[in-house]
Amino acid sequence: MNRSALVVFSGGQDSTTCLFWAMENFEKVEAITFNYNQRHRAEIDCASKIAKELHIPHLVLDMSLLNQLAPNALTRNDLEIKSGDNGQLPNTFVDGRNLLFLSFAAVSAKQKGIRHIVTGVCETDFSGYPDCRDIFIKSLNVTLNLAMDYTFVIDTPLMWIDKADTWELADQLGKLEYIQKNTLTCYNGIMGVGCGECPACKLRSAGLEKYLQKKATHNL
């Protein structure tokens, strides 16, 4: 297995942590970002800025067709962000997003001779998104290998850890402060600590507080 990886990269906390993780574990790392006319162009600008600072080859791919097919709160500014109730998915879930992103990432990776695809999906803090589940990733991994007659490995370093553990991983990589200040996770497009009110900011903030308490208690 070759020692190169392609990171599915949004410029948010999780994918940036995965980018640094990949840089520690692979000799060559590239990043791919998808422009699906998401709510905030700042997300793409953030990803591009980080990749440039880290000297990571970075491809931004036009995926605007996804916006046409699956309108929701992440692709429409006129929709209020709402959490899922009574078993309903939150309206920030984009149908087919990870299926399409990972499939197109695999096509790009094969052209470059890359076999590892790194993504920040997580089943522990997955907000009920079905395409963040381990069973989906394993299924897609098999499908991509068969579809292209090429051996891919989809790496998911965050799959079984929560947000506090993700912050701990960032700290272990020596990048906690960088990720705090330079990533964009907020659904309202605010860098760093974000708006503090949207579901993404609340999850991020609670995870950081939990980790910092653990760090102080155990002198990590």
TrEMBL record:
Alphabetical UniProt keywords: ATP-binding, Ligase, Metal-binding, Nucleotide-binding, Queuosine biosynthesis, Zinc
InterPro entries registered for this protein in UniProt: QueC (IPR018317), Rossmann-like_a/b/a_fold (IPR014729)
Catalytic activity line of the entry: 7-carboxy-7-carbaguanine + NH4(+) + 2 ATP = 7-cyano-7-carbaguanine + 2 AMP + 2 diphosphate + 2 H(+)
Entry-linked Pfam families: QueC
Record's cofactor remark: Binds 1 zinc ion per subunit.
One Gene Ontology biological process: tRNA queuosine(34) biosynthetic process
GO molecular function, one term: ATP binding
Residues that coordinate or bind ATP: F9, S10, G11, G12, Q13, D14, S15, T16, T17, C18, L19
Description of how the protein assembles with itself and partners: Homodimer.
Annotated function: Catalyzes the ATP-dependent conversion of 7-carboxy-7-deazaguanine (CDG) to 7-cyano-7-deazaguanine (preQ(0)).
HAMAP family named in the record: QueC (MF_01633)
Name of the protein described by the UniProt record: 7-cyano-7-deazaguanine synthase
